[in-house]
Fold:
Amino acid sequence: MTEAVGLSASLEDYLEAIYNIIQEKSAVRAKDIAGRLQVSNASVTGALKALAKRDFLNYAPYDVITLTPKGEKIAREIVRRHQVLKDFFVKVLAIDEDEANKTACKLEHGISPQIVNRLVQFIEFIDVCPLGGDKLIEGFKRHLECGVDRNKCEHCLDMARGLVARSGQVQKIQKKRLLELKVGDRGLIRGIRTKGPLKKRLSEMGLTPGSVVEVERVAPMGDPIEVKVRGYHLSLRKEEAEKIDVEVR
Amino acid sequence: MTEAVGLSASLEDYLEAIYNIIQEKSAVRAKDIAGRLQVSNASVTGALKALAKRDFLNYAPYDVITLTPKGEKIAREIVRRHQVLKDFFVKVLAIDEDEANKTACKLEHGISPQIVNRLVQFIEFIDVCPLGGDKLIEGFKRHLECGVDRNKCEHCLDMARGLVARSGQVQKIQKKRLLELKVGDRGLIRGIRTKGPLKKRLSEMGLTPGSVVEVERVAPMGDPIEVKVRGYHLSLRKEEAEKIDVEVR
DNA sequence: AAAAAAATTTAGGCAAGACTAACTTTTTTG
DNA sequence: CAAAAAAGTTAGTCTTGCCTAAATTTTTTT
Structure:
């Protein structure tokens, strides 16, 4: 008898807006919903009908709008997803509130309960963990403040150096060429001995001094070499990899 | 002359699929795209036309499909967003690969470059940071393994206790009632002295032993009390808050 | 190389969700 | 309390993006 739960992203937005307006004011007016979602009044009427048909809210033309228990439950879930995402962006990634809210709005649909819960657990865990805590997030923010030119901030460079191997023992930093790294090795880029379009292409991909590069795969003949930098996968020729200086330890 | 960049989520999916198929095979067949995106062949044709019109790919009926430089650039961005999200889910949140991929597919549209970059920086940072590193993620995984009954795992409880205050000094654990906490205080729930529908309602909200609860606001007369648990905001009556035992330090 | 099979495209439909314009109801105001 | 203003609704249209069925082109088989 009960149909599938699937609510479209659009209808979820309406439900969320209605829930939020109820929290702020006592009554919900179609106009407020329209204003909040940047949509015409006519669209609101349509959405209200759709939501009412599915029993998420009580609605009759010109009548007051209230959420049904079912509607309120779902709305809470949506608001929670939004809140969790926003918290993560603000507290962990140090994104400003506005951007965090905007992005949370877009992502809140289609994020599974499992991942929402994991995010909550992770945010709590960072606080809780003896290895983490505020110090971790503070460190991250300091790290971010170094700004664009990571290559000039010794603090950042030190951290990035740490990425290469974290065995716990003190190790010497070695200067190598990217070409010399094996699969799985990571290095900190310190220089690129090339110019012109190739240098530009590498730069655009994030292959710049200060970035961490990881070797993902090497073809049988040692060419091409697949690497990962800043979330990009790219494929380099032997000659190119030879021209990139890295630090490893 | 050049129109807005905005590409719909649907068209982004097609572009991504095409890019991925090109990486795997040499040629792109409409059928492969249809299979990957679980849509009919006719839909693929429509999408190809739309993408060709915007100059993301070279296409003519029955002809081979190739990406234009512009299309390839955008496709790379999309693939990167997907990869970064997936990496975050898998490496940081310890989500299994399948679920991570599915969710990344849904979220990859509408995540701003700033947040993608922050995610990359954060993943790298956790590795790099002397406070974090693999240990942090390992700890998180152990934490997750405790499973549902967090209230029985001393390891988790210890961590959760740490959340209440992390001043660095050793402090005594105090038993209190939620009612006694002030705004901003956090406590670890140890028991709920109530039954029936109220207990059920609280449970559904995540207000259960083992959870961390934070007091967000208290109304002038001390009632209601707004708290946050597991990403949910909820409002408790004085009588309810009195029946919840917490640990603070 | 013709017939059969597979792939692709076209044509025509449908649903969601937005819009504008015109109309109705409610609220406010003189 | 009636007229004006504001709010809400209806009707009709448009776009996106999916579908099925039928037609067309390409590829594979015999």
Observations:
- Chain B touches chain A through 56 residues (CB under 8 Å).
